[in-house]
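Hey, I'm writing a tutorial for new members on how sequence and structure tokens pair up, and I'd like a real worked example in the thread rather than a made-up one. If someone can provide the structure for the chain below, I'll link this post from the tutorial.
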Amino acid sequence: MADDSTASRTRSLEDILARGYTVNTFEYLRQGWEAFTDNPVGFLGFTLALTFASQAVPLLAPVVGQVLSIMIQVVMFAGLAIVTWKHPRDGNAAFRDFFPDWTTTAQLVWCTLIGLLLIIIGFAFLVLPGIYLLVAYTFSYLLIVDRRMGVRQALEGSRRVVNKHWWGVFGLTLVMLLLIGVGGIIGAGVLGIPIGYGLSGVFPEVNLDELPFAVPEMGLTVNLGMVIGVVSGMMVGGALGVAVSGSMLAAAYADIFGLAVSSQAHS
């Protein structure tokens, strides 16, 4: 997490490439959890709000909504990083502190669009180039937030650095995805089922084919209250996983790249 010692050892990309680095995934997980527990209400509230928005948008506009959903998620991870860096031992971060400024947000949007286009092209020709780029661009958004890099600089800078330890960063992203997935499953079981059971007497039975997120022609009938409960629990658990993962990624960035003055002064 951000402190004076972290800021003082900011590393140029050339230095990182020349001297290398290590990927300490479980140390980043520890730091991510520590950052979350310093301000659980703020982290979870912010993540829940943007998770709900990112899941709701595709229901309104399936194609464009998917792209907008990814953009919202990018802004979400940027916001989690900002607070992780700026408030390492401060549980008093206001909700507005999680949001990047408008200039940074615009850069993040462009980075998302260009990065997605390159990744899709990679998947279109061969699957492996797409996977490679997906991992290689992991830190591009944080380079924009921290060092105010342009989109091309951030994408290429992230790719060059990650290329030194691609498998290590790949493992880091897998652990982050695992946190989100396990969080969603636990949330559905521990929180969702009890809520669904309580709502089952209020809401009617519905056919799954009638729900917007259902697989067509399943022919199954379920209680809508149980569906609402399970989905709500899954969203809360997943948001918890996202919050910890976002702080974990911020810790990884701070360790590998160091933090620029812009991050310390961000408001």
